[in-house]
Amino acid sequence: MHSKDSKTNFASLRDKILGQNGKEYWRSVEEFVDAPEFEEFIKYEYPEQAEEWDSSLSRRNFVKVMGASLAFAGLSGCVIQPAEEIVPYVNQPDGLIPGKPLYFATSMTLGGIATGLLARSNEGRPTKIEGNPEHPGSLGATDIFAQASLLNLYDPDRSKEIIYRVEPRTWQDFMKAIRSKVAEMGDGAGIRFLTQTVTSPSLIDQFKRLQEELPGAKIHQYEPVNNDNAMTGTKMAFGSPAQAVYKFDKADRVLSLGSDIFSGFNVRYIKDFAKARALSTEKNEMSRLYSVETTMSLTGAKADHRLAVKPSQMPEIATAIAKALGVSGASSTYSENAKWIEEMAKDLQAHKGKSLVVAGRNQPPMVHALAHAMNGALGNIGQTVEFIEPFRPNADITQKEQLAELIKDIDAGSVKMLVILDGNPVYNTPSDLKLSKQRMDNIPLRVHLSEYQNETGMLCHWHIPLTHYLESWSDSRAYDGTVSVSQPLIKPLYDGKSIYEVVQLFFKEAYEKKDLAVVQEFWQKQDLKSVPTAETTKPEDENAAEAEKPLETSKEDSTPEPEVKREAAPSPTPSAIPVPTATPVPTTANGTSAPKSFEDNWRKVVHDGFVSGSQATPKSVSVNTDFLSQVPVTELGPGALEIAILPDPCVYDGRFANNGWLQELPNPLNKVTWENVALVSPNTAKKLGINHKENDFAGGELGTAFINTKGGNLESDLIEMTYEGTKLSKAIPAWIAPGQPDDVITIFLGYGRTRGGKIATMEDGTGIGYNAYELQKSNAMWFGKGDVINTKSKTTVASTQTHFNISHESVGTRDILHNWTFEEYEHHLKGEPYNSEELYDKSMYGNEFGEVYAEHNRWAMTIDLNSCVGCNACVVACQSENNIPVVGKEQVERSREMHWMRIDAYYSGNDINSPDGPHFQPVLCQQCEQAPCEVVCPVHATVHSAEGLNDMVYNRCIGTRYCSNNCPYKVRRFNFLLYQDWDTPQYKLMRNPEVTVRSRGVMEKCTYCTQRISAARIEAEKDGRAIRDGEVVTACQSVCPADAIVFGNTHDKNSKVAAKKKDHRNYALLNHELNTQPRTSYLAGVRNQNISMPDYVKVEVKEEKNGKGH
Amino acid sequence: MAQLFHRGANNVAKASLVLAVVLAGVAFFAYSIIARSSYLTGRYMERQQPVQFSHRHHVGDDGIDCRYCHSTVETAASAGVPPTQTCMNCHSQLFADQPYLEPIKASFRDNKPIKWQKVHDLPGFVYFDHSIHVKKGVGCASCHGDVGNMAAVYQENTLQMEWCLACHREPAPNIRPKEEIYNTSWNPRDITDEQQAEVDEKIKSLRSKELLTSCSTCHR
Fold first, then answer.
1. Which residue in B40, B83, B124 is closest to A88 by CB distance?
2. What is the ipTM of this complex?
3. Which of A1034, A989, A756, A1040 is nearest to A151 (CA)?
4. Interchain contact A1014–B (C-beta under 8 A)
5. To 5 degrees, how large is the angle CA A495–CA A500–CA A502?
6. Percentage of residues in chain B with pLDDT exceeding 90?
7. How near does any CA of chain B get to the CA of A1023, in Å?
């Protein structure tokens, strides 16, 4: 039944009946080659095509079991509810209404860059993270890390007590021990601090003051994902290090040199980029993105033109582009891709001052310097890119050099005391600068402050639990230098200490200070009170670039945020949970003109979450191209292949390895969960015989380039890898990645944790995945040469790429994704916009509920595929908002992951080696008006609400799974097992109290965040008005950095969603085939290709039969 | 082989067919009675509370408004059980030395909350909101009964879904004039013409039956 024939039949059938111009899209390698394994998998995933039940249970036994089930089913009604208690406050805090969430501004810092957040607090428990709409680094959006950081707070594996050589100790013990030691050390010679990237003005100041007291002490900063290359690059180009601030919203043409602008933990860039790219009924111009990169990234996927190159070629290509752009002194002999470079350069030059060249942080400094030189030549500096003073102190010295210095001193025996403040250097330092056990033994006293008792903690005398950012006060800087403040929402769950408190211990006087005191005192000295009256704050001389702008004092939020109310201080908590450290202060009343005390200003800053107007002023830079004469020396080791190293898109550098949400979050491109793989191109896989079955020849009808690599990825070969002469201790699964350049293998950091916690580390002490830090070397941090050997043993990788396929066999079409060229788009603009409702007549029942829907709010959603960058933030936000459980790798392999929302990644094109895409399509419940799931439910557990939501009633569901089998979109998720953790007390605090926690045997799915609709409806009803547009914001919509998701009431003609539905790109998924009348619709993605480019793909614009923009 | 069954067995067989139907009917009837019984629903059951608090005394005799203690009934989903502080507002002066107030004083002194026994307990998958019901004109007594005359509070109604739905399908009889919402002993027959006009206005503004009986109105 499977393979060629059926597909050809359906293909021809489709062309004949529908006469449409759907492209061929495929999601996985298996699908592309039409692998029989894939067909088998699809059949078993949903039993719609399954054969008759091969019954091992006899009919008689079946009747017995059924009878017993029925009898017991009746008994379930006879359960008396257990007695419950009501525990009110003794003294109810002001401003707190039990049952009403409060929102507090705070910020999360990753890699030294702060994202402003609003954390939702239900009776003192943080339960959801939202972006702070006014914070420049967020503008209301957040990324996967900020969303998932909530789970880290409640992680039961966090370290819970102060430990001295395995024994628990008190803070007093630690204080005594450290202080006596510091007193012995005199001027502090031999004391070393090792931190991650520090941008906190108050911490920098604290260290500065400490160094006055202890001039011999030294501070080193190191974290694996850092700005070293960017800093060195600016030093090469401008003579002094600087930090680039890009303005993607002003750039019409963007060239990315290996930069993944969409996953660089700065959601603001996605916001800006989406703004420049957005198409609407008013605006039909969009920006164009060129990408030169090695590994397919989100940026490469979104690029209009992508060039896949080996990592070692990048400097050459960058030089060639620089030459083409007329950078003085650039000379190049690089001759490949000449036409590509020439045409691209022409396009950039045609947009002087409105173009932008961005280099990735893993690119060599040379590429960064060249990017700056190109921006200089294009007149972009000051327009689309600005440079500011680096935030971190000692920016002159790279973090790698700082680490090397520390290691040298340890080896020399001059380090007497090492204080590791956050981070995990034993695990994540490069192999030749490894903070190994041997080196650690060389230090007489080692102190470790961290949220986890991890690899580093195990080798330290003292381990101190670190507070989570939701448990402590701190400050930091956003991408543009804006000072951001973090405030605690909850008292430390495990009596953790902040970095400030530990550093303070080293002072002679006032050594016992809380984080709030340290941060507040610093800002008091900075004369924060003068901030509102147009004076500068100068947190430190090195980062003197502070703002001249006055604080906005006269107005409240400029954009109305009806459902989000913010308070100025942490809310006190019910007595079951500890009360936070700070005294509550009421919401600051803005708008008073009286001179303000520091306290008033401080309250405003805490209320806002940042000091407005404190972004750094750009410094003037001039490009000096002398660096071009220094030919970069790249000494690479032996090996036939090049190997690129990247941080993992989900667990980052390994710090999120114990986070179940991120582990189970499908990698945005290959959808791998729960481990890291080695990416290999289809051609290279064929050459090396990887993921390929012997004597098995099959060419998919789509193409022939991929002929012999049929085994695909469902079963992966384990390969042994050598990188720059070092062999990886573990064989790693290979993964064929379309779009990967040939002879390049990409591996990911962040896995192979031996002391990561119950999730990151298996019971036998081996980490899941492999540890790429074993290979990283200080002279080959991000790429090098190496070899692989195929061990021929197989492993199963849990990837969701093949899951929940909108099966063309059952639906009879592959017309699921609309991705147009710009020419197609312009053609469609001439036609009529899509109108799904006319199809109602074709239904046997007509518009059955039409009258009901006409009288009520008509909730609907549009997802703009042109804006969506596939960053996954919505998936985690949905998981957090809707109490969605994590199921584990083994269950993911059975396609039982519970995410209500998935992002399908479709490739197109006939060459799997350089396909078009992937194009992303988030799929959630489409809320069909004529829902196929409803009619098959025997117990009416899924029915329509009057407002058109496809309600799911958990307590009625008996788990027949008929609905999910009948759902053409495959958006229903079944609790096959008791996935939800009902026992761990920490998780009880974390859950959203507004959403039922589902148990085993229950179907669940997206309901457009019906709890948020209910809340808005009740408030509107109380005020006797209609729900305003924008009052209901779904979790996925609010988190989306690209503003791709719009939700609202289409009866409201002025609503945003009604406008989007009129867009010519609007289309509904499978509506033409099945007439389901989904409330969710999509706006087609558009590729803005450059016609002169050699890889320009011309698509014939077909006239459709009925002229509808289907 | 001899006949296994006596001839009369035929009658037994026939009778058992009828009996089976009757028994099934009786069993179903019994089940429906038991399911609605106070044994299973907790209706009319008084609970032992840590403090012998009498609504009859505080509301009926002293005339304290419901909202003095249940202060969030108009603003939040939960009507709110008062913090110990609220009790102490009066009882730091009144009857301060009475032994039955000791749990209150102990709570206030030791900063330990009082653990009240829940009387009206909805399942976890039901999301009831007090504020909107009050706003729409449903009086406290419609669900809670004449609390002002209860010494110990008990559950007046079954709180089963059919009971909820009865009102969601036909809310009009339970809509009261504004000033009588918190009067638990109000008799609808005492309604004045003016009040009737107000109630009629309120009934008009109610959401449609379709929306009120949509699953997601109460279940999420």
1. B83
2. 0.91
3. A989
4. yes
5. 65
6. 62
7. 9
